[in-house]
């Protein structure tokens, strides 16, 4: 299997009025096509910085990045425009790129129908629940037909129960659409339930300490909700809890 994402020895320093802040140092990983990789680290550990580097919004201070495909980036906040309808929010990226043609529209309509948003296409974001807004944001990201999805704490704005349901929905969409995905999160349970692999960030300056393979397939099926109920879930949780540097001062 060849990797679709290859990252070698990335370093990132920020220079501020308070001096130099080393956020990432010697960070390396690679990812196979079709997999979901969770990158787990506490708040402030450099997760968003890493996604900004992968999506070319930031230039790293050091290191090499090799990405074979187009990136779709879903930010922590859904960034839906309140004055545009759902459909107009979804098409905005293609509109700006002047790529909104019949083919693209057909694909978007199919996504809306498949993922329960067709009836809501002419509504406004404020009329939708947090979970539906998140699905709209994902469909907007998918509308430009990316090969690799970057998701920045996609569920952090949702309350706990909603988060469980929405992570199931989002998981199904990602797997149906067969997208290679990098999901960053500070939530151990979310990482285990969603991902094929979990990479743990070290303390700052962060690198990847360890990558765990997660195998929680129950009779050929995995869903985040089922995964949370699997007996092995707790073992993965305990290992990752120990691995995370949240205990040290
Ligand atoms: P996370 O997403 O894991 O919470 P971030 O990547 O947002 O962490 O930030 C990592 C560290 O880098 C934080 O201490 C943050 O304050 C700092 N940081 C992020 N962006 C900048 C910037 N543009 N300039 C200076 N410091 C930054
Ligand atoms: Mg962040």
From TrEMBL:
What PROSITE patterns does the database record attribute to this sequence? ABC_TRANSPORTER_1, ABC_TRANSPORTER_2
- State if Transport is listed as a keyword: yes
Q: InterPro entries annotated for this entry?
A: AAA+_ATPase, ABC_transporter-like_ATP-bd, ABC_transporter-like_CS, ABC_transporter_ATP-bind, P-loop_NTPase
- Is-annotated flag, keyword Plastid? no
Q: Which UniProt keywords apply?
A: ATP-binding, Nucleotide-binding, Transport
Q: Which residues form a coiled coil?
A: none
- Origin superkingdom: Bacteria
Which Pfam families does the UniProt record give? ABC_tran
Instruction: Report the residue ranges that make up the ABC transporter domain in this protein.
Output: 5-228
Q: Which GO terms describe its molecular function?
A: ATP binding; ATP hydrolysis activity
Database matches in SUPFAM superfamilies = P-loop containing nucleoside triphosphate hydrolases
Q: Under what name is this protein listed?
A: ABC transporter ATP-binding protein
Q: Which organism is it from?
A: Clostridium senegalense
């Amino acid at each position: 299997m060849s990797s679709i994402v290859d990252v070698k020895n990335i370093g990132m320093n920020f220079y501020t009025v308070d001096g130099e802040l080393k956020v990432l140092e010697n960070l390396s990983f690679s990812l196979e096509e079709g997999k979901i990789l969770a990158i787990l680290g506490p708040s402030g550990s450099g997760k968003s910085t890493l996604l900004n580097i992968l999506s070319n919004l930031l230039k790293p201070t050091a290191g090499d990045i090799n990405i074979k495909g187009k990136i779709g980036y879903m930010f922590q906040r859904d960034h839906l425009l309140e004055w545009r309808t759902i459909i107009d929010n979804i098409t905005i990226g293609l509109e700006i790129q002047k790529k909104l043609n019949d083919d693209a529209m057909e694909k978007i309509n199919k996504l809306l129908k498949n993922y329960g948003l067709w009836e809501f296409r002419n509504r406004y974001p404020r009329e939708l629940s947090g979970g539906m807004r998140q699905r709209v944001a994902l469909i907007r990201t998918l509308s430009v037909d990316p090969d690799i999805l970057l998701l920045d704490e996609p569920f952090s704005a949702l309350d706990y129960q909603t988060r469980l349901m929405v992570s199931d929905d989002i998981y199904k969409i990602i797997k149906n659409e067969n997208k290679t995905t990098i999901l960053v999160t500070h939530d151990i349970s979310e990482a285990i339930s969603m991902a094929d692999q979990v990479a743990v960030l070290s303390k700052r300056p962060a690198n990847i300490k360890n990558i765990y393979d997660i195998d929680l397939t129950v009779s050929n099926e995995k869903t985040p909700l089922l995964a949370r109920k699997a007996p092995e879930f707790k073992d993965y949780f305990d290992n990752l809890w120990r691995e995370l540097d949240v205990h040290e001062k």
